[in-house]
Amino acid sequence: MLSLSAPTLSAPASQIPSVASARPPGHGPRLLGRLGMCLCIVLLLALLSACGTTKVQPGYYRVQSGDTLTQIARKQGTSVSNLVRWNSLSNSNAIEVGQMLRVQAPGGQASASSSSGKSRAKPAASPPRASTSTAKRRTAPPGAISLVWPAQGKVTRGYDGSGSNGIVISNSSGTPVVAAAGGTVAYSGSGLRGYGHLVIVKHNASFLSIYAHNSKLLVKEGQSVKQGQKIAEMGNSDSKQVGLYFELRYDGQAVDPAGTLPPK
């Protein structure tokens, strides 16, 4: 799973001028540039985690910055094990800002969630395990958006809603990367650690798409792009293998793009 944490952008102390020191030509603009880049990354992270205005339904909680599963369980008067079971979490530490968590027992499970020991063992049995992948796999509403494949190649990793929030399409370096749908370039750069040379296209109030690990970026922030327009070239920036990491987000959450992409 790729990290969305921003890189550390701090200037060495020797580069920060004091009031009494002589200022080398151009130092001020360079420092302002660093501050501007930090602000850009903060705004970008906000866009990734809060694209959309979905209301929180009763019995659910939207993960906030700094939250841990233990804190959420304490606030909601339940246990971490209940939250893990109700949300089919494979890793109790892998929750994301903006993620929607069930914090009340699903219908018919109240007695099971309140008991311990023997009753707790039932959800771990084989039958519920089959439905775990379904619970993790988020999909966009049918017909909400129509995509084209962002690159030609072989899908070497699929979406699973847990360890992989997107898909990886593998091909040779320089393979064209195109916009899966029309929209506006919300980000074009390499300021997010783990994504390499990255493009983010905002399609509307609910959808955005992510194109990572490119070798070359061909669009600028604020630029309008059409569906199928070349926006980058495939590469392996910040990755061990050449390939495009493609992610689709609906209302701030990663969804399986398979239902919106045409069959290969």
TrEMBL record:
Pfam families: LysM (PF01476), Peptidase_M23 (PF01551)
TM ranges: 32-52
GO MF annotation list: metalloendopeptidase activity
Location of the region described as Disordered in the Swiss-Prot/TrEMBL record: 106-143
InterPro entries named in the record: Cell_wall_metabolism_enzyme (IPR050570), Dup_hybrid_motif (IPR011055), LysM (IPR018392), LysM_dom_sf (IPR036779), M23ase_b-sheet_dom (IPR016047)
Gene3D superfamilies: Glucose Permease (Domain IIA), LysM domain
Keyword Thylakoid annotated: no
Domain LysM: 59-103
Similarity section: Belongs to the E.coli NlpD/Haemophilus LppB family.
Protein name per UniProt: LysM domain-containing protein
